[in-house]
Amino acid sequence: QVQLVESGGGLVQAGGSLRLSCAASGSTSEIYTVEWFRQAPGKEREFLARVFWSSGATFHEDFVKGRFTISRDNTKNTVFLQMNGLQPDDQGDYFCRARGRYGLPLTDWGQGTQVTVSS
Predict the structure, then answer these.
(1) CA distance linking residue 88 with residue 108, whole number of Å
(2) Which tens digits make up the pLDDT trace of 58-81?
(3) 9, 27, 104, 105: which has the fewest Cβ within 10 Å?
(4) What is the DSSP annotation of the chain?
């Protein structure tokens, strides 16, 4: 089994930056991709970005391109989400999730990490 723990959220002023971490443990050899999602109050969870665990290749949704960057450090079994130029619309709970080679989730949703942006 794979376990993921999100951290790094907090309060930041508009225009500021945060780096979120997603630490993996357990059967990390089963991980094919790790994805970041967020959920704003009263809204559905939305996909932000994906990193391929082995190659480090990435994919970002258009609305975060240029502001958010996903990366991974396999030596630390950790995936990061660097977020720059944060705006109040970026507020919410941020979650990561791992998928196996055939696309099935390896993890349930965790506690997430909360991001608050003051205007």
Answers:
(1) 27
(2) 999 999 999 999 999 989 999 999
(3) 104
(4) -EEEEEE--EEEETT--EEEEEEEEESGGG--EEEEEEE-TTS--EEEEEEETTT--EEE-GGGTTTEEEEEETTTTEEEEEE-S--GGG-EEEEEEEE-TTS-BSS-----EEEEEE-
